[in-house]
């Protein structure tokens, strides 16, 4: 499998997603100064380095009692490459998120397509609202890979044919599938990210379980790892309080 198209627009097939933290101003101190304005006003900035145990306790208290706004005074910008069907789900998250995505009107879309990796469970069992995913057979895996790749190639060829005939990109793109990779910048704060993670990841510590599609969860897991390193106290409090956004 190739990761990206060659210069001559050879199709690429990918089973992973990319998440890169490109910009941030986010630390546990951002939560503390915002929260302490309640009690010490503008002196809250002077208190930041004092008494780490109290700081940890304060963050945990804010999380537990769902005092959410102190978790908004920070910012993280991610560059994400994922299939369009992931972005459709992603952009349902409206509050505390800003998005900019590559345009299918202004640029020719590159032939990079999603195929499930070997660890992706292929078969759904059970009734709606109460189902599990189980491994596919080797035959199913082969069928999925082959069918998807053929279908992608056919769609991309049709796209190219229309572009070559002078049809506008915004018209020709209609034939491209949701398995096509796209890219976007997504900016959020810790509070909106926690809400996203509560819904789009599965975790043993989650008080309220969610059942996200695996591919958006793969994006969520990578964002979570970046955020955990930036705001360790906030991250620990999120987990300790059942992964419910405050
Ligand atoms: C497992 C799963 C399955 C899903 N399946 C479907 C599906 O089949 N079809 C579908 O259409 N969507 C589906 N969704 C999307 C889901 O309905 C939400 O749109 C998405 O999870 C974003 O959540 P949100 O609205 O809480 O987030 P945000 O838009 O970020 O909003 C954050 C919070 O702000 C408040 N808020 C935002 N807007 C309003 C408003 N207009 N009025 C009142 N309060 C508001 C709410 O408290 C909300 O929780 C699914 C989501 C998940 C996680």
Automatic annotation (TrEMBL):
One term of GO molecular function: thymidylate synthase (FAD) activity
Cofactors required: FAD
Cofactor binding mode and count: Binds 4 FAD per tetramer. Each FAD binding site is formed by three monomers.
Entry binding sites for FAD: 69, 92-94, 101, 189-191, 195
UniProt key word Flavoprotein: yes
Entry's EC annotation: 2.1.1.148
Gene Ontology biological process terms in this record: dTMP biosynthetic process; dTTP biosynthetic process; methylation
Enzyme class (EC, first level): transferase
Assembly with partners or alone: Homotetramer.
NCBIfam families reported in the protein's UniProt record: thyX
Record-linked HAMAP family: ThyX
Name of protein: Flavin-dependent thymidylate synthase
Gene: thyX
